[in-house]
Amino acid sequence: MRRLVRLLLMGRPDGVRRRLVRALLERLLGPPAPADGTPTGAPAPPPPAALRQLLPLVDLVDGQLTETLLDGVPVVVVRRGTRVHVLDATCPHAGGPLGDGDLEGDALVCPLHGWRFDLATGACDVDPSQVVAVHAAEVVDGVVCVPAAP
Ligand code: FES
Fold first, then answer.
1. What structural domains does the chain harbor?
2. Is any ligand 1 atom within 6 A of the Cβ of residue 124?
3. 40-95 pLDDT per residue, tens
4. Which of 109, 112, 126 to mutate to test ligand 1, by most ligand atoms within 8 A of the CB atom?
5. CB-based contact 61:79 (threshold 8 Å)
6. Residue 93, ligand 1, Cβ within 6 A
7. How far apart are CA 88 and CA 76, in angstroms?
8. Is any ligand 1 atom within 6 A of the Cβ of residue 100?
């Protein structure tokens, strides 16, 4: 009975219906495992998260602010040794240009009223409700990159 059902569904072993069903299954599920049981290989790794390139690392002077655009929005890039920080360049207080500010320790100081923003978190020491957006930066092949927008 089972053989008859299989024959009705799949057709003869060398028939057109079986070849069509195999081709369809292969297209949907991928190639079948080899008959000898060897694995077909590990599944392909997921693609790396998309990154946007900002600047070559060599263009950044350690301890200085560099302003550039990220998707048309000004950001400040700061190199501190091997670490790189990328923050939005507009102060949340009154829109001050943070790219014209100063570095004091681990803080970026706004040139208009002196509010300080932590380089790593963007937190403000004067008003904790005010935070500058911080972009996770990494250096890939000598280029400062940030994750692509979702
Ligand atoms: S505009 Fe930046 S502290 Fe006021």
1. 1-39 (no CATH), 51-147 (2.102.10.10)
2. no
3. 565 644 445 689 999 999 999 999 999 999 999 999 999 998 899 999 999 999 99
4. 112
5. yes
6. yes
7. 6
8. no
142/42 Cα distance (integer angstroms) = 30
Higher pLDDT, 133 or 20: 133
The answer, as to whether pTM is greater than 0.70, is no
The answer to whether the beta carbons of residues 75 and 88 sit under 8 Å apart is yes
Residue 81: CA count within 13 A, CB half-sphere? 3
Cβ-based burial of 27 (10 A; exposed 0-12, middle 13-18, buried ≥19): exposed
112: Cβ below 6 Å to ligand 1? yes
